[in-house]
Amino acid sequence: MAVSCKGKRRLTYKGKEYIWSIRENYEGFFADRYNVFHELHITAADKSFSTIFPLRPDYDDDGENYKRMKEYLGIDFDIPEAVTPSFVAMIIEREDRYFVIERHTEKIPQIHIGSGKSYTVMNNVRPILCVDVSDTSNPFDTAYIFGKWLCIGSDRKAYFVDIEKAEYHEMDIPMYFGYFREFGGRLYIFTGVGIIALDNDMNKLWQNDSLAVDGVTGGELSADGKYLTVSCELDPPGGWVDTTISTETGR
Fold first, then answer.
1. Does 50 share its domain with 104?
2. According to a count of CB atoms within 10 Å of the terminal CB, is the N or C end of the chain lower?
3. Does 180 score more than 90 pLDDT?
4. How many other C-beta atoms lie within 10 A of the C-beta of residue 201?
């Protein structure tokens, strides 16, 4: 049998009654990856959803995505041994939160921008969107979740995917993409030569391309949120200098 059930249990959380159960599944994409996985099913009068937990971390990415799941869930113990009533309550609380793993996933909405690297957006450990981009030689390429946006840094491009609409727009990055950094509820892109500040719709607020010659890193926000101090490489290799700029103008 491909699926085995562990029995239904009841949980009252914030005045609402939920019924939850655990199934072991041995078929499909996740079973191919994980050998066997657990599905946690949660139902209430107005909703029904499930999450997926691999039984073991030793699959093809050396456990990196398993580690991301555990960091996202904020646990230090193995899944699914962690599935207790308090764990189920935490899952309910986080139902609409996203995180991203580096993997291609079939049978969910797809956005194809390039080839060679794939990111899957997870909604509470449930795959909901897959985005393919080009695999570049830039070692800093990465993906980052900011609210409803999947933000992807890829060489000299940044892509901003609206997770809810499965639409995206892009931005040119000078020299190379470095990092996504979040300060004071605002997202910044650190590039090879400076910083780009973004609003909540991932549009450019300002751009300063004269901070560095080969990289910007670090970052410390002032107590009043008006200034950002970063480390800029002005004399490579190793010539790093701290610089403070205004968060409103970038100067």
1. no
2. N
3. yes
4. 11
Bridging pattern class, strands 47-54 and 98-101: unpaired
Residue type, 5: C
Mean pLDDT of the chain: 83
In this predicted structure, what is the pLDDT of residue 101?
Answer: 84
For residue 28, the model assigns a pLDDT of 52
The tally of domains found in the chain comes to 3
Please report which residue ranges of the chain form alpha helices under DSSP H: 28-34, 64-73, 85-93
Of 29-33, 34-38, 127-131, 243-247, the range with the lowest mean pLDDT is 29-33
Does one domain contain both 111 and 164?
Answer: yes
Q: Distance (Å, rounded) from C-alpha 13 to C-alpha 206?
A: 44
Positive or negative: CA dihedral 74, 81, 44, 30? positive
Q: How are beta strands 204-208 and 216-221 bridged, if at all?
A: unpaired
The tokens for 19 are: 């019924």
pLDDT score, position 87: 77
Beta bridge partners of 53: 38
Rounded CA gap, 82 and 80, in Å? 5
Q: What is the DSSP letter of 156?
A: T
Domain containing 121: what range?
Answer: 100-172
At 211, the amino acid letter reads L
User: Of 50, 66, 95, at which residue does a domain stop?
Assistant: 95
Judged by DSSP in three states, 30 sits in: helix
Give the per-residue pLDDT at 3: 36
Q: Are 184 and 123 found together in one domain?
A: no
3-state DSSP percent of the chain in helix, strand and coil, to 5: 10, 50, 40
pTM assigned to the model: 0.73
